[in-house]
Amino acid sequence: MLRLVALLGCWLLIIWASQAQVPAALPLRCLTVPAPGAYAPLRQALAGVRVVMLGEQTHQDGATFEAKIHLVRYLHDSLGFTTLAFEGDMYALDKARREMAAGRPVRPVLLRSVYEGIWSGTADFDSLAAYLDTHRRLQLAGFDCQLSGEYTQEQLLPELRRFVAQDTRRRWTAADFYPGQELLAELSKGGGAPRHPADTMRLARWLAQCRASVAYVAARQPAQAGRARFWQQWLRSSGAYWRGEMREARGQREPVQNLRDRLMADNLLYLGRQPEHPKIIVWAASYHLANHHSRIDLDDSVTARYIRREVLADSEDVQKVNAHTLMGGAVPMGELVKRQLGSASYALGFVAGGGTYGRLEEPKGLRPVPAPVAGSIEQAFGQLGCAAGFVDLRQAPAGATFYASPLGYVPLRAPWAEVFDGFYYTQVMRPTSSMAPVAVAAPAALGRKLLGQVRDAKTGEGIGFASVGLPGTSLGTVSSADGKFALFVPAGQRADSVRVSCLGYASARVPVRGAALAVQLAPQPHLLATVLVTAPPQPEVIVQRAHERILTNYPQQANSMQLYTRSRNWRNDSLRTTRETAMDFYDQEGYRRGSWEHAEKQRFLQLREQRQSGPEPPEPPLYWLLWSHDPVLTERNPLEPGPSRQYRFTLNGQTEYDGHLVYEVGFVCERPSVYTTPYGYPASESYQGTVYITTDTYAVVKYEAFTGRAPYAIDKSKALRRLGLAAPTVRRVTIHDVYQYEQLRGTYYLRYARHDATQVYTDAATNARQQTQRDCIELLATSFTQDKPLVLQTTGLHVDPHVPYHPEFWDSYQVLVPATVQDK
């Protein structure tokens, strides 16, 4: 019996080996990149091809990026390819093409159009930017239905409105484009959610009206036909993607990414029909470029073992996550393109023999490339000793089946000639790395600290978050929750007095005598709207005027700041981690409303010092999280005309701030969504607060908002273990945001911001509280200048938090004083 079993085992092994090993007739070629003639095998394989699709196993493959850039150069220089089309925002990359044609510098154009931090903004991508800068005949394009570019957020709707305004049959107004703002918000901030039927009908009507106007312009102005074709395609693609998101919100989910792949294929085929794009290079993930995912053996035991070992860390999910759930039912873009173009398209997958992938700046996320499995294409290339290699699978024996890992490093068994047209092999993979700012030496500054406390003149209680500064300068701070402050005065700076202001109190100018200052502020009467002598404007009008005055009240030119940030984390009321950062900040454009919606991390930054206490590893400063919700800089809040229609406003009265009378306007969002509130999905259930606006200049001097987010059920054991919980739980999140602005010579700027988020975990069965987590992030602008701003050249996209620590630096830098009472 044992002998029979052994014979059966040998027979099965022979059968497996004959089916899984790479056929000897497979035309493997080593490439001597970048030597002249290295790509001769590709030239032959690409004869008659109009669309070459270059994949990547993940978006964190530095060696693959390098190989693809070499291929882009070869395809353009030697084979005459005219267009580089990214798996990226369709409008943003079309705008980038036109910006490059106008002679704009390429690097900032790419940052505003190509996925930041994935491709643009990485050191690996920088050589492509340099090449494009000197080869501007290679045009850019995008075919993704997802909205990810800064150009889209800022310029798409204004440009579309100008185009449809040529339709003389109707008069398009700003209000007509509010549904367009809603569409962009929903497609760029997290997808669909159940919507009010009236909103759905209004958005569908807007899409139809835009298409009708575009068609009208195209029919009567032949010179506009090209732009009309683009707008019709964008409207069709975006509308279909939005409708798909709505279906998914109702539980009608398509397999994997089929909707997106279908729309990307349609957009790419549209590009191929345009005369300006005769030969296209596609840059995308290999998953989207594959043909016939159905030919991959999703039940293979080697694949299953790899997924179980490498992909899953949670035993309860082993039965739920497998090759079928990852790829089953997929109809990728490549398959749809192949149906239309046939042999005129060529999909090149990428594989690697070893090394590491991930982001160099995120050591925890670095992963080794798995060792090649027996009978794999990687093993075959490794046996040849190739540093780089290529195989034209169109020349492979019919039905040849073997292992390869072109889709996320998962070893898969398939007749690969039916999935890809060729493979590019790299012997050693390496991670991507960012173009991170270098921390500068931070010498201790000379000067002195003025200590003090701000109290209510009537009650004697400390006044929190009062503004304390030197008159006539931007040097200042805010008091802690119990009124204490420490103001650093640089050497040579005159400091005869300090000016202290707080909403609801008369401002005070206090002479400096000695090291400690005792400041008392007199409370001012809060005048209710019903007792004001002069009838004020309606609250909706006050908010509208505040929006209209943003361009005159806030800086519209280059400026720089010195910033201090403090991030604290509590668990069950116990402070665990405190992280403080000092940095220089440069804004080359000023307060462009909406400019922070998608490009908050692209601002120019120089990290000076960072210190931390607590068990968590160092992290980059989260300064951008505060500004990305700043109501003056962003558009998804009650100050914006479109979302404001979904708010109820109340004039609570008047009070005083820094010598100015201010209106106190309360607001409540009646339809919270990703469009009307600052936070994406899971959607806000409630959003309300107060905005304080000066009565003379209509400047926002303070904005305070409270957000309640939809409950989120957590039942996966892995997530529960990470939280230290045993039973299924429900997470409820509340957020308290505060923004305070100050004036310097007629210009307002952000002095202080605070983002305070509390997560409460309750037992799903009993509703008993299990755990509370709180994260509070604060930002203080310690100085501000427009006259001679500090010009910086590098962005804060991936700031390296591992900077030198000098204890003496913090003795002379402006910081927030810790409160002796619990912050509210």
TrEMBL record:
<protein>
    <recommendedName>
        <fullName>Erythromycin esterase family protein</fullName>
    </recommendedName>
</protein>
<dbReference type="GO" id="GO:0046677">
    <property type="term" value="P:response to antibiotic"/>
</dbReference>
<dbReference type="InterPro" id="IPR052036">
    <property type="entry name" value="Hydrolase/PRTase-associated"/>
</dbReference>
<dbReference type="InterPro" id="IPR008969">
    <property type="entry name" value="CarboxyPept-like_regulatory"/>
</dbReference>
<dbReference type="Pfam" id="PF13715">
    <property type="entry name" value="CarbopepD_reg_2"/>
</dbReference>
<feature type="signal peptide">
    <location>
        <begin position="1"/>
        <end position="20"/>
    </location>
</feature>
<dbReference type="InterPro" id="IPR007815">
    <property type="entry name" value="Emycin_Estase"/>
</dbReference>
<keyword id="KW-0732">Signal</keyword>
<dbReference type="Pfam" id="PF05139">
    <property type="entry name" value="Erythro_esteras"/>
</dbReference>
